[in-house]
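Example record

One chain of 87 residues, shown exactly as stored in the release files.
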Amino acid sequence: MLTVETIRKIKVAHDRHETPIRQISKNLNMSRNTVRKVLRSEETRFEYKRAIQPMPKLGEFTTLAGKRVGAGCRASTQTSTHDQGLV
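Predicted structure tokens for this chain:
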């Protein structure tokens, strides 16, 4: 992910200091294609977000854990309500 700060460094180096793309990529330790992409676009932030996790490691455990946590929350609220009635 490129931050706004890195994008600014690339644009300033290229526009003001007339630094070549190859030198910018060496200085910032990134590919020349990435530097070109930044210079050609008007974006201020580049990031990638995956829409669907193809192979989730937890799988069905997340649904089981969600059910158990939900059941535990309900049990604790029932207990606390019951205890308040006894006091």
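Notes: The chain has a mean pLDDT of 80.
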